Amino acid sequence: MNMLVIVAIVSTTLSLILMVRLALGPTAADRMVAVDTLTSTLLILMVAFGAFYRRGIYLDIAVVTALLSFIGTLTLARYLEGKI
Fold first, then answer.
1. Which of 22, 25, 59, 61 could link 30 by a cystine bridge, Cβ 3.0 to 4.6 Å?
2. Domains and CATH numbers, the chain
3. Whole-angstrom distance, CA of residue 40 vs CA of residue 52
4. What would the mean pLDDT of 21-41 be, rounded to a whole number?
5. Terminal CA-to-CA distance of the chain, rounded, Å?
6. If DSSP states are collapsed to H, E and C, what string results for the chain?
7. What is the pLDDT of residues 63-84, one digit of tens each?
8. Region 40-68 average pLDDT
9. 16 pLDDT tier (thresholds 50, 70, 90)
């Protein structure tokens, strides 16, 4: 089996589990962790695509997505803490 197919199957399964946690999470912090983990799963998939197709643009997009995710997580954490 191709390594890209294995990564795609694992990340899809993990994404479905995280979507359930996102929908059913009892607190906002649970939902925030689910979204952050979902973004990390997306980043793993983008890096795998970049390695498989040997295209650097996927890695550039993954870096920008990681930075935006980090900024969004910090902003949401500060909002939930009550400092914004």
1. 25
2. 3-81 (1.10.287)
3. 18
4. 90
5. 49
6. CCHHHHHHHHHHHHHHHHHHHHHHCCCHHHHHHHHHHHHHHHHHHHHHHHHHHCCHHHHHHHHHHHHHHHHHHHHHHHHHHCCC
7. 999 999 999 999 988 988 887 7
8. 91
9. very high
Output the CA angle 64-24-5, nearest 5 degrees. 50
> For residues 77 and 5, what is the distance between their CA atoms, to the nearest angstrom?
35
C-alpha–C-alpha distance, residues 53 and 3, integer Å: 12
- Which is nearest to 37 in space by CA: 17, 58, 9, 59? 17
Longest dimension (CA), the chain: 49
Contacts of 18 (CB under 8 A, 6+ apart): 34, 37, 38, 41
b/e map of 52-74 (b: 16 or more CB within 10 Å)? eeeeeebeebbeeebeebeeeee
